[in-house]
Amino acid sequence: MKVAIKDNICTKDMPTTCSSEMLRDFTSPFDATVVSLLHQAGAHIVGKTNCDEFGMGSLNTHSIHGPVINPWKSLSSDITPRSAGGSSGGSAAAVAAGLCDVALGTDTGGSVRLPASYCGVVGLKPSYGLLSRWGVVSYSDSLDCVGILTRNTKDIADVFPVLNDYDAKDPTSIPLPVRAKASKLLSVHTFSRWNRDASYLSGLRIGIPQEYFPAEIQSSVVSPIRALFTELRGLGATLVPVSLPSTSYALSAYYVIASAEASSNLARFTGIEYGTHVGPPPEADLTKASRVYAHSRSNGFGREVQKRILLGTYALSADAFDNYFLQAQRVRKLVKRDFDHVFAVPNVLSSSPSEASSQSKVDVIMHPSAIRTAPPIDSGSESLDTYVQDTLTVPASLAGLPALSVPAGTADDGWPVGVSVVGQWGCDELVLRVGEIVQAVTAGRDSQSSSSD
Amino acid sequence: MRGGWQLRRVLPRTRLFSTIGEGGTDRRWPGWEVVVGLEVHAQIKSRSKLFSDSLTSDPSESHNTCVSPYDAAFPGTLPKLNSKCVDLTLRTAIALNSQIQRRSAFDRKHYFYADIPAGYQITQHYAPVAMGGHLDLETGRLVRIKQIQIEQDTGKSTFDARRRVSMIDLNRAGTGLMEIVSEPDMRSPEEAGVYLRTLQSILRSVGSSDGNMEQGSLRCDVNVSVNRPGEPSGTRCEVKNLNSVKFMQVAIACEVFRQIELLEKGEAVQQETRGFDEAGARTFSLRSKEDAPDYRYMPDPNLPLLLLDQSYVDRIRSTMPELPGETRARLLKQGLTVRDVDVLTSVDAGREVGFDGQLGEGAVVYFDAVAIGRNPKIVVNWITQDLLGQLAARNLTFKENPISTQQLGDLVDIVQNGSITGTSAKTLLRHMLDQRSAALPSELAREMSLFALPADGDSGSSELEQWCRDAMAAVPAETAAAKKGHSGVINRLVGRVMKMSRGRANALKAKEVLQSMLRGPD
After folding, report:
1. For B184, which of A97, A281, A289, B37 could close a Cys bridge (C-beta 3.0–4.6 Å)?
2. A82 by DSSP, 3-state: which?
3. Which of B69, B81, B297 sits opposite A30 (nearest CB)?
C-alpha cells in the first residue's frame, strides 16, 4: 500500500519542513509513532505532502512549496485552478490524483475534512486521543489529530485499526480500558438497535443540526446533500432535526484557543538548536535573547503564521487572558455539552453523562462539510471568508469527536461536495460504517449520472 | 564606590549572631523589624528528568550529553511525566506538613531565553501540588509554607566574553525542581539561614533532593522588607539566585541596610527584583515592578490534570523515610546516649542521597539493621568506637565500609555468647577490614583458631592445662615463688598463658588451673 505523509509529521529518512522557511532543511531524528506503525504494517511511504505552514490555513496557499492545485479537473486554459483546501491539501490532492492509496494528514479545525470535501475524497478526523501525536509537529495540542485520507471509506476502515493504539509517548493518548469502555457503550446504545453489517439503515437515527446550514452556504452545495438525506431515509434511517445552539460561538473560540496554543508551541523555533538561523545584522540590538531570535522568526515564519502567533500571544497576555482564553474554554465546554445532549451514546470522557431519555437522541449527525465547493486559488485568500470555511468543521474539533467527510456528489459548478458524519467520542467505527453506506449510495448515484459522460 | 563602602559597613555587623536587643528589635538595626520569606528551588533527585527519559546529571558531566530531542524542544516531541518526581515531591510535602492537592495541573510560563529551548517552562502556576504546611525551626520559630510546586529546571548558559558567544548546555534542562515557597515568617538573616539548613536536612533525609547548594541543586530567592515595630510590613524586594547559606544571609543583611537607608532619608522602597553581587556585598536592581515580564501562563494542553487519589498518597505516606527529629527521638528511646546519636547522625549528614528515593546506606540504617534482636547499646559501641575508628584509621568513609551488617552482627553475637573474647573480636575486625573478607566472623574465627576456650566445662581444658604447664616450665623461678605463696606472681603466669593462647583462653579459668597446679598433686 502506497502511503503519503503530510509534511508536519516527522520522518527520519525524509525532511519534515511543515511548509515553513523555518524548517526548510530540517530532518527529524525520529519517526512519528504513526509512521512507525505504518512501516511495521508493511506500508510503502512514497513521500511527504504539501500543507499550509504548520497546518495553519484552509486553502493550502500558505506554503514555501507553493499552493496545491485541486486535481479534480485537469488543468486547462479554460479552467481557473481551484484550491485543494487546507491545511492537508497535498494529502487530499495526492489521494485524489491517485499518487498514493492513503495519505496521512492532520486536522486541527477541519484540515483533513475540508480538503477531502474539496478534492472529492474521504477524510477521517478520528476521536481526539486515539491516534498518537508523538512526532506530529504541534500547532494546537488540544485540537491536533492525525487524520486519514483515501478514495474509499473502506480503505480508511482498513488503515485506521493499524494506527489506533495507545502510545505511552503521547500524554494525551487515551488508555486502552477507556477505549474498550467506549466500544462497549457504542455496542449497547447503537449496535443493539442497528445491525452494522446490514446495507440498510433501519434503526439508525441521524441528526440534522439546523445550525449547520448557515446563510453563507452555497445553495448548490445543499442540493446533493438533501438528495442524500432522502436516499438514506429510503434505506430506513430516521432523520431527526437537532439543535447545537453553541455552534455560532465555536469559530471564535476555536481561533482563540488554536492561536494561543500556536503562539506557545511555535516559541521553540528560534533557529538555535535546529532549523533556519538568521543571524542579526551587525548593528542589531543583542541585549535580549528575544531580539536575537526575532531575525530568524521574522524571516522563517510566513504571514499567516505570524498573524496567529500575534493573536495567540495577545489572547494569553495578562489583560486578555480572562476575556479571550478562558472565555473560549467556556465556549468549548458548551460545544461539548451540546453534542453530549444529542448523542444516544454517552460520552465516556464526560464526568457526568447526561441520562436524559434517549428517545430524541441520535447515533450520528450529518451536515455539509463545507459551505462551498473548492474556491479558485487566486481569490479571497486574504479575506475573512477563508476563516468562515472552517465554521462547519470546528465544533467537532473542539469536542474531540470523530468526523468523516465523504463525497456526496457534485454542486452545480461540477466540483465535489462532501458530507460530514460525526459521532460521539470513541464512535469512529460507527462513523466509518455509516460513511461506507453513504459512499455506496452516492457512488451509485454518480455512476448513473456519469454514464451519460 | 558605594558598594565597597557598604561591604566594610555590613560584614562585621552580620557576624553578630545575637539578634534580639532591647525593645524586640535587632541590635544591628535598632527600631526596625525585618520580614523575610524564601522561595527555594530544589532539584528533585530522580534518575531521569521530569518529562523525558534522559538521565539527570551533575555539573561534572560533559556538556550536552544528557539531552533527548524533547529536552532540546525538537518539534513533534511531547512531555511524559516521571512519576518518581511526583512521589519525591509528595514526600517533601508530607515532611513539611503540607496539604497534598488531590487535583493539580501543569502550566506553561513563557519567556525567550537561550537556556529554555521550548520558549516556555512547565510549572504549576494555577494549581500547585501542595498548599500550606509549616517547618519548625530549632529556634522555636514556626515558618509557614505557602505552597510547593513541581517545575522544570532550565539549561545553563555561559557567556564567553573573549569570543563574545553564549554557550548553552542542556544537560540540566528539564530536570525536575520543587519550588518551596515560605510565608514571610522569618525575622532575621540568621533565621533564614536556620530555615534553609533545616529544609536542606529534611530534603536529604526524605531523599527528595541532595540539597547541594555548591552544586546548584538547591538555590534560593529571598523576599525582604523592613518596617517600624507595630506598623505593617514594608514594601518588599526580591533578591534572586542566592547560592549559599552564607551569601543568602549577607544578601538579606545588605538589603535590610539598603531599605532602612532609603526610608531614613524619607524615600520609598520600590518593589523590584534585585540581584546580589557577592564580591561587592551589595544588591542591585534587575527590574522594577513595571518591567515585570508577562509570562502568559497557559494550562499545558498536553499534560493531563495530576490526580492523586487517597490510596496513592497513603502509600507514599506509609513508605516515608524517618525525619531527622523522629530518628533522634527513636534512637534515644532505644537507650543510646546523646553522643552516640550525634555520631551516627553526623555520619549520615554527609551520606549520598540515592536516586528515586533510594536512601543511602547511612550509619543509622546500618545501626538499625545490626541492632535487630541485639542489645542496641552494645551494637552502637561496636559501631561508634571500633568500626568508625578503624575506618577513620584507614581513611575510609562510612560509604566505603566493607563490613556488612550480617558480619558485624555475627561478630557482636560471638563476643556476647563468649565464643571469642573482646580482644579477639577487635583483631578479627581489623583482619576483615584489611582483607576485605566477605566471610562471617564465626567462620573466620574457626579458620584462625580464635575461639575462646570455654570458661567452664571440660572441652579445651587439656589444652589450657598444657599452656599452664608450659608457662610454669618457661619461668621456673617465678613458678617457684608462686608455689611459695607469692600471689602477685600468678598474674604474670596468667599473662603468659593468655599470650600463648592468642587471647582465646579465659583468664579466670587459667588462674584457677594454675592455682590448682601450683598447689601440686596432693
Report:
1. B37
2. strand
3. B69
